[in-house]
Amino acid sequence: MKEEDFDGYLKELEEAQEKYGDKIKIYKSLEIEYFPEFLEKYVKYRKKLDYLVLGLHAFRQPGDNPNYNAWKIKTGEDVLDYAQYMAEAIESGKFDYIAHPDLYVINYRNWDESCEKAAHIISEAAEKMDVPLEVNANGIRKSFERHPDWDRYMYPYKEFWEIAAKYNIRTIIGSDTHDFMEMEDKAMELAREFAKELGYESLEDLKNKTREETIKRENDRIENEYVGALLDKLMETTTIDVPVSMVQAEIQNRLKESEYQLSMQGFKMDDYIKMMGGNI
Question: Is 80 exceeded by the pLDDT of residue 250?
């Protein structure tokens, strides 16, 4: 989409929201490349969108302005340049989540030290900025269409996500389809299975867990309030005779505890009492 088409795109989305808003939740979103000279544009876009998504298909090398095609990465050096450039994009704070962060393995199919390091670089940046990474179902579709003989997907790439799972990052599963008929297709089902096998929880699982935790916290709160109110009532209506020996024992316990705490700070109890103006 060209920049001059942006307002028309928003208008179409708003018309769809008005027409179908009672049937489906429609968000305003845009997948976009990262170029540091466009930071102000990203701010402008985000004000009008619900989500601004980073889809890094082009990257730059340090100190170099030409754009390189991520689909044609051939060397380990390119892999690391891609990862560093993505980390820079994430740390710009302009994007709400990252589409297909493992795109760099599409053409560079030998998982090696540079790929592993790239996964760490991207995951560290995502964790630092608390930006979700996307398990992308469109890579599965493309695998079936273009490389049906491959024994693994173009992406999502298992080794990348095994490393990402070690970080405290949020993950989403995205359809990334250009055809509304594929919104919930076999590729999406496989993407969910892929994520689940690696220990990533689905949104529904997270919702259920959150619901259970919320119910438990509320039940605990109600129980604690009830017990507290009951004890307060008992204290108001009950007189308890405490043996003198119990009171003396409690005083001795507290004195010993205070003496121990003072000793940890280099004081003796007698010296402390004198210093405070008391009598031994």
Answer: no
Percent of the chain beyond pLDDT 90?
A: 56
Rounded CA-CA distance 132/112 in Å is 24
Q: What is the DSSP secondary-structure string of the chain?
A: --GGGHHHHHHHHHHHHHHHTTTS----EEEE---GGGHHHHHHHHHH-SEEEE---EE--TT--S-EEGGG--SHHHHHHHHHHHHHHHHTT--SEES-TTGGGTT-----HHHHHHHHHHHHHHHHHT--EEEETHHHHHHHHH-TT-SS-SSS-HHHHHHHTTS---EEEE---SSGGGTTSHHHHHHHHHHHHTTPPPHHHHHHHHHHHHHHHHHHHHHHHHHHHHHHHHHHH---PPPHHHHHHHHHHHHHHHHHHHHHTT--HHHHHHHTT---
Residue 264 has pLDDT above 60, yes or no: no
Instruction: Determine how β-strand 51-54 pairs with β-strand 29-32.
Output: parallel
Per residue in 200-230, pLDDT (tens digit) is: 765 455 445 445 555 665 666 677 677 677 7
Q: What is the pTM of this model?
A: 0.70
Q: What is the pLDDT of residues 18-32, one digit of tens each?
A: 999 999 999 999 999
Q: Structure tokens of 227?
A: 């017990």
